[in-house]
Predict the 3D structure of the following.
Amino acid sequence: MKNLITIFLSFSDDETNEYNLKQFVSSELVEEVYFVNDKNKNINIKNVLNVDSLFSTSTLDKILQKTKTEHLIFITEEGKINLQNISLLKFIDTSEKNNSGITYSNYYLRKENTLINRPLIDYQFGSVRDDFNFGSLLFFNTKIFSEKLKLIDPNYRWAGLYALRLAISGDGLIVKIPEYLYSFEEKTKQTDEEKHFDYLDSSNAEKQKEAERVFGDYLKNIGAYIYPKFEDIYFSEDNYEFEASVIIPVKNRANTIKDAINSALKQKIKSKFNVIIVDNHSIDGTTQIIKEIANEDEKIIHIIPKRVDLGIGGCWNEALKDKRCGMFAVQLDSDDIYKDENTLKKIIDKFYKEKCGMVIGSYQLTDFDLNEISPGVITHTEWTNTNGHNNALRVNGFGAPRAFYTPLLREINFPDVSYGEDYAVCLAVSRKYRVGRIYEPIYICRRWEGNSDADLTIDKKNKYDYFKDTLRTEEINKRIEMNKNVFK
């Protein structure tokens, strides 16, 4: 039975089953093929496993009980798959050479007989988000699968596979093959935008809570879990001429910058505030628009950096090091606007009330003309005061608008990039300080073709995802080190 594989396919109620079966039954490397059925309807056929949920611990246990081979493949979503024996041999060879618990590869997405490259990113220590993209095919070493499954809570209904993956990754046993070893035609289609907000969908709340428990246990096992004992901050305005600064980094946003500035200027607070606009060498008329408004209102501070190679993070650092920066630095993207004149006041009140290092609000998604678009208001209610700072490592963002106690940011500094720079500093602040949350929409986020993250290519999306995983890697290591020092 050496090197033989047991195949487990997501069950479909159409011709997909027969199509996929033909891919494997003729291969001398395949011992047996099973279909995993989670359709809420029992199928009384020998090679069908009827399960409660595709990724539950009990499903993984059923898969293991049926596996008598050294390796198993789990096709984790419905769709037609194509691969050859040479691909199976490559999976076997890579797994055995690296002693990997999970092996995955690049693949082709098949759409209407066209093959589209789907390169995947390498797994690293910080690749802990539960929506990490392995593609549709996971190749397991059965022995490692069995050993790690014993460590998993048997009652997980949805997050069993996530828990198993984290357990395997703890020993560095996840390997990517940088070759395109199969093609896959998706049966269920979902846009990247829909996938991005999946974890905020109320219908997925129970699944997310379970994934949060899984991830919390993982952080405890590796020594990175932080218990909710935060340092209070007592604010003093003595060293600040301005209580708050609205920070707007901008480059080539002639269509939107005026709206953003005006929404900042109309804020009503009792103390002094300013609007620091870091104009990153715009060439489309943005600079002139800013100058004209600045000539009319002394609240505007127009900064053009000496360097011409700054990212958004570098622009934020330019604003922070300016002596006119207020005690609170409040984000406003050049595409967006504050919901009304009370946004800044609500943020400042939250700082004082909760003595926190950072405040994050809720936002409303709209099109360019401010018509609400799906999924509407994003509140991040998955955040809890007791575990939000840990769970933030699992999800892809904190929310908006983001506001910070300026002295903290001057210590941390933004990474000089134009994606994930905010996530990096939010993780760093939440490591030690309380995060205040505002669960009503105070910010309007415009989605239009000019957004920097609109219509991302797969290469750029992979670059962004890999960078965020790198931030998680760094942050998890810092939390492990901090806990070592605390418990010495």
Remarks:
- The mean pLDDT is 93.
